[in-house]
Task: structure prediction
Amino acid sequence: MLVKLTKDRIRKGMFIESVACPSKEFAKRRFILTSDRDLAAIARSSASEVLINVALGLDAEGRAPETRPSARRVPQSSGSGANAAEVQKVRNDLDQTRQALKSRLTDIVAGGPLDMDDLSSVAGSNARTWKDSAVIALEVTRLKSKDETTYVHSLAVSGMMTLLGNALDMDDEAVSLLGVAGLLHDIGKLLIPTEILNKPGDLTAQERDVIRGHPEAGYQLLKTYPSVPPLALDICRLHHEVLDGSGYPLGLKKRALSLPVRLSTVCDVFEALTSVRPYKRPWTSSEALKWMFARPQLFDRKMVLRLGSVLVDSPIT
Ligand SMILES: [Fe+2]
Result:
């Protein structure tokens, strides 16, 4: 879990993820703060805030990870206490948006119309939910029924993409486009026979190829609609590409992957890792962020850090 602190609250034993200042002294350094020299250097720096990782060091109150109560920031799905009403509201809002998305995507897959203004409106209401209640929305969307997985995953990825776009100071138009691209990015999955998509056991090599074909299949479908912007086509086709070229379908490397495409990959992988799946224990947000941050050959580290700070900074207590 990443937490932003003003630099006067930094103390030895904290794990420093980043110090936002131009000084080369802290560039690309992640470290456990153990020396008076480093502490003084942070105090002298032009940074006003420092990002710490409380999974790896002391938290804001000076407690070590193993001594902290493992308090969850958000009530479980039933909702309780002071947050129950808000959890229920988020659940209702996301349910409505999911139904709207399902009807739009089902129409498109059946060869019906694709109305960009209408999709922007669906993406906009989803983005508002995530802006107001990101951590609750994340918790609510972690659990997916088999039949709704693609829709709920797409809502969550779209919401996170808009949060991350805003955190990176993109303008409103660009953020809105990210939201629509997130809604559409996995449309190719809806072209996969459900007996393969929802198969509970191991997949054959051929079935795996069918699933890995979903970015290209979605791209080929969306391409038939002239109103779909190139960026949404790119994100649909390239959201499983990674920086070292080991992704699919094209095996592109970092220099060929635009910032919005890299952003979509980070949100897509984070969502998948934190989802509740029958075959794995769901990862916490901090576990997923830590795993991704440790793989700079695959994921844009700046995006991973920003996503962590956005989720941590959400107005939920
Ligand atoms: Fe995908």
Remarks:
- The mean pLDDT is 86.
